[in-house]
């Protein structure tokens, strides 16, 4: 009898830990996607600024 109770408690704890782990992994992946998107946006802005500076320097050299 006690063996079945311990087995049931163990299975319940295992399921609870698995569910909690999957939720944490899902949350981590969402944050990871958000950070990657933000870094991509910022690097795009930096590239645009560099291109603008190149154009400005080229215009100054001509005049």
Key structural traits:
63 residues; 97% helix
Main pleated-sheet profile: none
Radius of gyration: 27 Å
Principal-axis shape equals rod-shaped
β-sheet strand percentage:
under 5%
Can you tell me about this structure?
The protein has 63 residues and is mostly helical. Helices cover 97% and strands 0% of the residues. It contains one helix and no strands. The chain has one helix spanning 2-62. The protein is rod-shaped, with a radius of gyration of 27 Å. The termini are far apart. The relative contact order is 0.06. The model has no long low-confidence stretch (mean pLDDT 95).
Please give a quick description of this structure.
By secondary structure, this protein is an all-alpha fold. The protein has 1 helix and no strands.
């Amino acid at each position: 009898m006690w063996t079945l109770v311990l087995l049931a408690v163990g299975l319940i704890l295992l399921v609870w830990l698995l569910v909690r782990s999957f939720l944490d992994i899902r949350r981590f992946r969402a944050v990871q996607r958000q950070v990657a998107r933000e870094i991509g946006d910022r690097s795009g802005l930096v590239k645009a600024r560099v291109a603008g500076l190149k154009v400005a320097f080229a215009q100054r050299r001509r005049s």
